[in-house]
Amino acid sequence: MTADLSAFPITRRWPPRDPQAIQLYSLATPNGVKVSIALEETGLPYDAHLVDFDRKDQFTPEFLSLAPNNKIPAILDPHGPGGQPLALFESGAILIYLAEKTGQLLPEARRYDVLQWLMFQMGGVGPMFGQLGFFHHFAGKEIADPRPKERYRAEVERLLKVLDAAMDDREWITGDYSIADIAICPWLRTLRDFYRAADIAGWDRLRNVPGWLDRFLARPAVQRGLLQPAR
């Protein structure tokens, strides 16, 4: 059955190229690529639409109709539960949905282990890495008071130590590759390669995290997902 997505205002600004595929509204940020990587890993067909922050796309009525918090990523699945279209925002929720939809990346035997590390990323890694990035790489570096940057630098260093200890004798954060790796590793990449803040957060003293990130970035699906949506 052909899905009808015309009731969703977002499709008027970003018309589906393939109405039967999952519609992804995103940008290649650490949160955005979580979902494109998961889609590539699971093999689900998707139609990636660029939400351009330079044009303030995230504040348009069409985007807000799907993602009221004006944050990417968001998806519209024409074949959601019960065969009905499903609109979803928040990257963590989307990762869980895609894993449950496909039966991949969330092994039942380690389900709650995966979910706890996913929440660790959402509540700790993302917000703290982002704040350090603001004070080290963006406009925050112009603030003379050193205390805000040092607060976030110290917390990022602590979080990295937690991850490094958890990765002892493991290839992936819960043993099996999962949505937890997909959630955390894009933030590690951003800290190291975009914010260029790894050196001030003790990266060179980590035993396991650098190799984990390298394994992640070597995956073909990850390499494809990092490029979506194309500019």
TrEMBL record:
CDD domains: GST_C_Ure2p_like (cd03178), GST_N_Ure2p_like (cd03048). InterPro entries: Glutathione-S-Trfase_C-like, Glutathione-S-Trfase_C_sf, Glutathione_S-Trfase, Glutathione_S-Trfase_N, GST_C, Thioredoxin-like_sf. Residues 19-106 form the GST N-terminal domain. Residues 107-231 form the GST C-terminal domain. It comes from the Bacteria. It holds the Pfam family GST_N_2. Gene3D superfamilies: 1.20.1050.10, Glutaredoxin (3.40.30.10). This is GST-like protein.
